[in-house]
């Protein structure tokens, strides 16, 4: 009888513990969903504020009135030109670029198990800048020679192809050398320096005006944002992000170790190749429009990981929203801090990201991997 009571007591205790664990898990999930929703609202607010700030001040009510008239009426005014033709494409491009870079950075950090991995430190952004510099300064494109500066999409295509070269080099390291995460990041940084040096080399004898345009690409800028850019970059994001979201559970399993992942049934090699390739295409699709904007893919995932943890099912959308907010904030600062001059957005993101980069380099504790 006593043994029976002890058995029942143990069962009730186990049931209570399971209920407590389930309650804590559900609470954690709700917290993560709330954080993502909060960031989404923050993106909308930041976009609204950015639309009102500029050389010509326009109130919130005027902005939304202009948007309404542009959608349903054809009324031409200076305010409409400022909001619809100048600010809105720039805001949307900042959101899309922030989302793309943050998502790529999140997945690269996940598969490489290194908080320093991101599109900029992997050399992908510098490769795109070199491709653009070839087109701008030398008039040379993989599609042929000629006035590629006048043909925007030939320049963009050049930047896209050269952005993939560092990605393939890093991928080759993963496949054939099986390096440690630290060595892999060093390989990416070496690609960054190589393409940066090549860019500076072709700038030495070049026309100063062409060099100035190329430097904007090398630093990153939204100065040339237009409605023509929104559809192609949206298409790249729409194709790549669902594929990466589909692989988030596999990345979670990889965080427990390659051997554990293999024992569960995850093809580690194939998964890493797939994620690296899609992340590289996503990054190339972004930087070929906005240039080599650094540190967004470093800052956004790291901060979100500190707040909601390393579950990539929630970390990926949270980092995407945070990246959009970060780039909107950086662009607003770039447009206003030295108005009427507009500084390249890459300078602002570098000022924000460099201290965090140094912090991560010096930090010894591995809290998330």
From TrEMBL:
GO biological process entries: siderophore-iron import into cell
Pfam families in the record: FecCD
Domain of life: Archaea
Protein name as catalogued: Cobalamin import system permease protein BtuC
Localization: Cell membrane
Keyword annotations from UniProtKB, A to Z: Cell membrane, Membrane, Transmembrane, Transmembrane helix, Transport
Family: Belongs to the binding-protein-dependent transport system permease family. FecCD subfamily.
GO molecular function: transmembrane transporter activity
Cellular compartments per GO CC: plasma membrane
Membrane topology: Multi-pass membrane protein
Its biological purpose: Required for corrinoid utilization. Probably part of the ABC transporter complex BtuCDF involved in cobalamin (vitamin B12) import. Probably involved in the translocation of the substrate across the membrane.
Biological source species: Candidatus Methanophaga sp. ANME-1 ERB7
Subunit structure: The complex is composed of two ATP-binding proteins (BtuD), two transmembrane proteins (BtuC) and a solute-binding protein (BtuF).
Membrane-crossing residue ranges in chain numbering: 33-58, 91-112, 124-149, 155-176, 183-202, 273-300, 312-330, 342-362
